[in-house]
Design goal:
With 328 residues, this protein is of the alpha+beta class. Among the domains are: 92-217; 223-321, Phosphorylase Kinase, domain 1. 16% of the residues lie in helices and 31% in strands. The chain has 6 helices and 18 strands. The protein has helices at 3-15, 25-39, 201-210, 243-246, 298-301, 305-309, and strands at 42-43, 92-96, 106-112, 117-121, 129-135, 150-156, 159-165, 177-182, 188-194, 213-218, 223-225, 233-240, 251-258, 261-268, 275-276, 282-286, 289-295, 312-314. The chain has a 12-stranded antiparallel sheet with strand order 6-7-8-9-5-4-3-12-13-14-17-16. A two-stranded antiparallel sheet has the order 1-15. Strands 2-10 form a two-stranded antiparallel sheet. It is elongated.
């Protein structure tokens, strides 16, 4: 993180309103890490307030937590052959959901330096969330679990998985649930679920896990970018579907680095309460969508915001017309 980015992040934290009292701070800290990459480059437009919805979007907590007690970790799997990911799309998921509970209303994707995840999300102040991630080997114990994490065996699709919990008598860990299982190609998958309350929660999560499919999947996006400068390297890409907080059905944020410069491309339907990026943004509204480009150091990037914006083609709000071939 550059000094410039850190200064911006700290200023936002000082200006941001306190979260609602119902927010679980420990839980917010967990998901705040993923959202912090967008928060650290947020440029608030007009007088729009930064909203902390569902306890996740605008919460970053810098309180140290004690290291959790060690938990048994499975040995590394045998090397496996994994299909190569597409190179002309900045957002490629490692896995995809199949069946999901009716409380889930949308799917979000993230890829890049802060991790690759797929998030099934609901609606409301405490929106139910099911995070799906895939790693080459089983990761260590979740950092947010206090006490001594324990494993409770659970079959997933005929494979020997397990819940991770602080209470062996409660595999669901009081609703903050972790389910892990080995994938058919030798990696490890995890569901992390919270704010999802239903009488058959354990059975529902096992079904969700059992119907996950694995392998790279390019996510359709609402734009094409022609002649992306060769010095550009993807930092992070993410979609969000939070109409209650963003004021629009969805948003896309692409962030690139280029010779030390930070480049941000933000696309959404018109009316978003905020946009993202460091530097002087350049925006356009075409074909029913609004795109903004911001570059904090244009000279280092080798292109200014307007020049990059001119290379963006917007495909419209009809998601059936979006493309998986983004970089031309």
């Amino acid at each position: 993180m550059t000094d410039h980015e850190l200064t911006t992040m700290l200023k936002e934290l000082a200006d941001a309103p306190a979260p609602p009292p119902r927010i679980d701070v420990g839980r917010a800290r967990h998901i705040g890490g993923r959202r912090r990459r967008v928060r650290t480059t947020a440029l608030v437009v007009g007088s729009a307030a930064v909203v902390a919805a569902g306890g996740v979007v605008a919460v970053s907590v810098f309180r140290p937590s004690p290291a959790p007690a060690p938990v048994a970790v499975a040995p590394a799997p045998r090397p496996v052959s994994v299909a190569p990911a597409p190179t002309d799309n900045p957002l490629v998921a490692k896995a995809s959901f199949g069946w999901l509970p009716e409380e889930i209303k949308g799917i979000e994707y993230a890829a890049g330096g802060h991790g690759d995840t797929v998030l099934a999300i609901g609606r409301g102040d405490l929106a139910p969330m099911i995070w799906l991630s895939v790693d080459d080997r089983e990761p260590g114990p979740p950092r947010d679990l206090s006490g001594t994490p324990k494993q409770v065996p659970q079959k997933v699709g005929g494979r020997d998985g397990h819940w991770i919990t602080t209470d062996v008598n409660d595999p669901l860990n009081h609703g903050d649930s972790y389910l892990r299982w080995p994938t058919p190609d030798g990696r490890w998958a995890q569901l992390h679920t919270y704010y999802l309350a239903r009488p058959d929660l354990q059975q529902a999560l096992v079904r969700v896990a059992g119907e996950v499919t694995f392998g790279p999947r390019a996510v359709p996006l609402p734009l094409r970018i022609s002649s992306l400068p060769p010095s550009f390297r993807l930092s992070d890409a993410s979609t969000s579907r939070r109409p209650d907080t963003d004021g629009v059905p969805w948003q896309l944020v692409l962030q690139y680095s280029s010779n030390g410069a930070l480049v941000t491309i933000n696309v959404s339907p018109p009316g978003a309460r905020r946009t993202y990026g460091l530097g002087d943004p350049r925006c356009t509204t075409k074909n029913g969508l609004r795109a903004c480009v911001a570059i904090d150091h244009p000279q280092a990037a080798g292109i200014d915001a307007q020049g990059l914006l001119d290379r963006v083609t917007l495909l419209g709000p009809d998601e059936t017309k979006w493309t998986t071939h983004v970089i031309e």
